[in-house]
Queue: 2 jobs
Job 1
Amino acid sequence: MPLPQVCVCYLLREREGRVEVLLGRKKHGLGMGYFVGLGGKLEPGETATDAAVREVFEESGVTVAAGDLEPRGLLTYHFPHREAWSQESSVFVCRRWEGEPAASDELDPEWFDVATVPFAQMWDDARRWLPGVLDGGLVRRTFVFGADLATVVEEPSSVA
Ligand SMILES: CNc1ncnc2c1ncn2[C@@H]1O[C@H](COP(=O)(O)OP(=O)(O)OP(=O)(O)O)[C@@H](O)[C@H]1O
């Protein structure tokens, strides 16, 4: 069975020579309370890029062009103790958009200096790969979460 497909997009801007990333504390659903990038599930027939364009707009009111989304890789999340949460996430970064991020039903967007991303308040996997992506890198990693549904207990190296 293929895993459910989701997407995440990190908007990046420059302020006084420093790079900032847009995150927001998720208001409900999977990962409620964590700071996350903009994103969500792919709808039937959508590509990950289509879904990222749509989710960025739905969650922040910002319009991005598909061509301005930089594909940065794929993350696989396994939850052996809650199979319904297992999913695969396409990762994008975007530096150009139209409009100003605004609060939505999903999250209240907030800019963070890339040097002070609030990893302690994010999914446990994020600190392991997000710095590299924010620094311009690509990612292809798999994370297995434990019985607490919050802690990464294993990272199979064969697919890292
Ligand atoms: C387990 N470790 C994780 N680490 C970092 N980010 C994670 C994550 N697990 C899920 N995500 C992100 O969460 C969104 C999907 O969440 P999911 O509940 O499926 O979608 P969301 O509630 O937004 O759905 P809608 O499509 O709006 O209904 C999507 O951006 C995805 O990248």
Job 2
Amino acid sequence: MKIFSAAQIREADAFTIAHEPISSAQLMERAAGKCATWLEEHYAPHYPVYIFCGKGNNGGDGLVMARLLLDHGYKVSTGILQYGAQASADHQLKLEALQQQYPASLYAIGDVSDIPTLPPDAIIIDAIFGTGMSRPIEGWLAGVVHHINGQRGKHTIVAIDMPSGLRADESSVQQTVIQAHHTLSFECYKLAFLLPENAAYTGEVHILPIGLHPDYITHTPTRYLLADPGIIQTIYQPRNPFAHKGTYGHALLIAGSYGKMGAAVLSARACLRAGVGLLTCYVPQCGYNIMQLSEPCAMCVTDEDPHYSLHFHRSINPATYKAIGIGPGLDTQPGTAKALEHLLDSYQQPMVIDADALNLLSVYPYLLYKIPAGSILTPHPKEFERLFGATPNEVARLELLSQQAIKLQVYILLKGRYSAIACPDGAVYFNNTGNPGMATGGSGDVLTGILTGLLAQDYSPKAAAILGAWLHGFAGDLAAAHLSQEAMTAADIIQWLGKAFLEGI
Ligand SMILES: NC(=O)C1=CN([C@@H]2O[C@H](COP(=O)(O)OP(=O)(O)OC[C@H]3O[C@@H](n4cnc5c(N)ncnc54)[C@H](OP(=O)(O)O)[C@@H]3O)[C@@H](O)[C@H]2O)[C@H](O)CC1
Ligand SMILES: [K+]
């Protein structure tokens, strides 16, 4: 699914009006109708509805909702904020219709004191500003937003299209923004919804299709995309009936150290369950028995050192391996950094670089320039900051993420609720599978195993990154559904990987 900017959504709107064709007033009727239906499906008519309308088309949506809900027997009170701007043409049209049919529903808000006391079970609809937000909310309008937010503990707040005050494409940090429980947004995700810094504003996001013209949607390129099931199905390659174990590649995982062998075992298991043909694990001597006993399907090569992997550049022939994953539980010994440098100098194919291997890159940043093109780096936000520096907000971090992926010609998968996969061509894919149960030790090691396994099977790095992140999250969702987010562990993500292939694709 494409993520359009606010400007592109305006273009899509105009394109639909011109080419469907449909009048803007009818399109508003369709959009607001979807919101009214959503509300009716979730709240019975005995819930009083308080709609707060701005003077643009977002407010117009609120006016249409008011009329439709009143038609269906709801008690609706519709306050219109009287700030200076001229009301939009469609707002005026919809206001006249409401005035004619239900004049008693309407009242003006010129200050916070005009807002009535709400009955206990009231639902608040925020139709103040949508994608037309052009500057921060200030003065008494900010007072209205604060007043509504003050009701959050007592009343459900539903934002139409965007929580008012939230910018679709820019950071809204330290601005006045409605804190909704639900956001009903039209046609597509907005970038702002995917950033953790906005979680308190959007609540649960529900995307309602309003029939924007498919030609615009199909032919307009976007920088940001959401990896939806349609994209996943085009990436997934069913296995060849004539396959043998050589068909699906030989992967090497360089992982584990004294006290952190669990990371290597989790990665190895995940790599195998992701479908790799053959797997060799390179571990320090202390890891030999652990690996051999834990995972009989993997082969094992050991370092000369009892506790750390310091010499893998000497004892492995990189040409043997279709894909290499390095980092989980590796530790950050100077000797490991040296071995990593030799490996980067001799291996030309895309690798998966995670955890302590990333930490080594942040200590020796010149190594970043030796990473083979097309490699996949999988930092969490702290690792990202250590690698590339801090940013004032998450929109700036996304920009930095994309710049670095272009500059280094690698894929950078920044882990989070919506992991962002920045590609060397400038595109950024968001993943929306996964849940907070996955915020647990070992989850990242599992992802590294999956990605390495997919790379070894000849998925392109881009396909491996998108499919791997999606499978990892979906398996986590299945694990949480059966075990709870609290009780699930990273090992359970691996257990549900099979079901994720069977049910998710
Ligand atoms: N294609 C679709 O998705 C459809 C969307 N619809 C709805 O339309 C809105 C966008 O409507 P628009 O009229 O462009 O914008 P808004 O309603 O969000 O707000 C514009 C008015 O607000 C003023 N404004 C903006 N920021 C502030 C502020 N900080 N303080 C005060 N006033 C502000 C702005 O004034 P200007 O001076 O900037 O002109 C306007 O008066 C979209 O979100 C959907 O809800 C359609 O209904 C259907 C198709
Ligand atoms: K709104």
